[in-house]
């Protein structure tokens, strides 16, 4: 796999760690995969603070997906840039038509641990070109998950991808996390993804950027470290996490936006 693909091991490790601790997120599949493989990570990419942060982000995504599936029961779910994530299992999406999409090398790796079913399918594709949509069943609405992916795409690539999705579906419900431009600049100096060889990332200046020529309308911004999840940490760990990852500085670096069409 290329270096961008290898970033999938960082959130996998984080979810396995917190799940084993019994906090923030229950993810037995991540535990199983990590215990079996123990992919090589080093430096900040194995930071427990990063593990807590990304797991809280994933928990917020999970709750959003469950809410949207309840609101739009006939919608298909598209997890774009899925990596080795077990979200379909975590949210109990047995009845939904769910599609996990990622690069061919990632899907080859994923198929070692997951299997297609009647309602669940893995698609090997570059999410930017939109060809994966040709294999999808008919549906007016799609719930689109883009977690930990947008920073590897330019603003133009994101706009083009969302434009293609808007043209394909009458209704879109989208949740996407983004670096700010400042965070993208800072990542050249200090970012755990550098530990797996990634050096080029991109930021989104404001939510309006992803409305431009996409058919999307900004709905609201979410907090990636809500109080009820931070409170699962205790003592010194909770104090440090609130200071470094849930405070004003962190919120200037990283955003979580909801859109609809």
């Amino acid at each position: 796999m290329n270096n961008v693909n290898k970033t999938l091991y960082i959130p996998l490790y984080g979810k396995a760690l917190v799940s084993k601790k019994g906090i923030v997120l229950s993810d037995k599949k991540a535990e199983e995969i990590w215990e079996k493989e123990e992919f090589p990570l080093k430096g900040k990419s194995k930071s427990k603070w990063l593990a807590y942060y990304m797991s809280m982000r994933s928990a917020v995504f999970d709750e959003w997906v469950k809410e949207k599936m309840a609101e739009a029961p006939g919608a298909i779910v598209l997890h774009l840039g899925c990596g080795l994530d077990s979200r379909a299992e975590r949210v109990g999406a047995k009845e939904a038509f769910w599609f996990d999409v990622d690069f061919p090398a990632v899907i080859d790796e994923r198929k070692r641990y997951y299997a297609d079913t009647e309602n669940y399918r893995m698609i090997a594709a570059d999410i930017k070109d939109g060809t994966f949509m040709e294999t999808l069943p008919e549906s007016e609405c799609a719930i689109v998950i883009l977690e930990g992916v947008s920073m590897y795409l330019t603003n133009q690539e994101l706009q083009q991808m969302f434009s293609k999705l808007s043209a394909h579906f009458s209704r879109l419900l989208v949740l996407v996390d983004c670096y700010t431009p400042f965070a993208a600049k800072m990542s050249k100096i200090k970012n755990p993804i550098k530990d797996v060889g990634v050096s080029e990332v991109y930021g989104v200046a404001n939510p309006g950027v992803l409305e431009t020529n996409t058919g999307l309308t900004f709905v609201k911004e979410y907090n990636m470290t809500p109080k009820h999840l931070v409170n699962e940490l205790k003592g010194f760990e909770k104090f440090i996490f609130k200071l470094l990852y849930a405070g004003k500085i962190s919120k200037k670096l990283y955003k979580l936006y909801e859109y609809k069409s």
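The first helix runs from residue 3 to 6. DSSP finds eleven helices and seven strands in the chain.
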